[in-house]
Write a structure and sequence with these properties.
- The structure is a single chain.
- By secondary structure, this protein is α/β, with parallel strands linked by helices.
- It contains 6 helices and 10 strands; from the N terminus they run βαββαβααββαβαβββ.
- Helix 1 packs across helix 5 (about 125-135).
- The termini are far apart.
Length: about 210
């Protein structure tokens, strides 16, 4: 059964955060709230996490995961940023945007686009997620918690636990969560292209 962890939405308890980080370091997969909607997350070098996410969501091998980063400095370790991208990402984060950018060598080949060698990255505006990532010291490999046969991600933590009790290791409750995934902006070609409209205002990239 998944552990149910209640965390204060604005002032997350360090003990709860440390507990979840210890689980992640022990190869756990968690369902956690973000500034857009619920997501599934594991460490980048998790032995089993990516495959477990694919099984839960019925995804193929080519599914593009997102690296969820604590801050701009961490994001910069995993993607190449030219001046245009640097200014755009810096001005827009933290917020519910995912940016597609050229991956550095820090990103395992299996998680980058096979031909473009790009990866999605984001810095969420959520106190719990930021605290978790700071304590972990590395990004989360993440995917929206959109279950097969559903049009929207679940918003209630107990519903998430009921649905995923035997396939994730922890479910985090940190208050209300939305149903809209991030806005995805491709910056890999030197100019912004909105490829999915979501929780972040797409107009700033048009």
């Amino acid at each position: 059964m998944a552990r149910f962890v209640e965390v204060h939405p604005r002032d997350p308890q360090p003990r709860a955060v440390a507990q979840l980080v210890a689980m992640l370091r022990d190869d756990a997969l968690i369902a956690y709230p973000t500034d857009s909607c619920y997501a599934l997350g594991c460490r980048l070098d998790s032995r089993t996490g990516a495959d477990r996410i694919r099984r839960i969501r019925h995804l193929g091998e080519r599914h593009h995961f997102t690296l969820v980063c604590s801050d701009f400095a961490q994001l910069g370790q995993f993607v190449h940023l030219d001046n245009t991208a640097f200014r755009a990402v810096k001005a827009a984060t933290p917020a519910p945007y995912t940016f597609i950018l050229p991956a550095t060598r820090e990103v395992p080949k299996r998680f980058a686009h096979p031909s473009k060698r790009t990866v999605g990255v984001r810095i969420p505006d959520h106190p719990f997620v930021r605290a978790l990532l700071r304590e972990l010291g590395e990004p989360l490999l993440s995917s929206t918690l959109l279950l097969p046969g559903h049009d929207e991600p679940p918003t209630d933590s107990w519903t998430v636990k009921e649905e995923l009790d035997h396939v994730v290791d922890a479910v985090v409750d940190a208050g209300e969560v939305g149903t809209t995934p991030t806005t995805v902006v491709d910056l890999s070609e030197g100019f912004p292209e909105v490829v999915r409209e979501g929780a972040g205002d797409p107009e700033r990239f048009r």
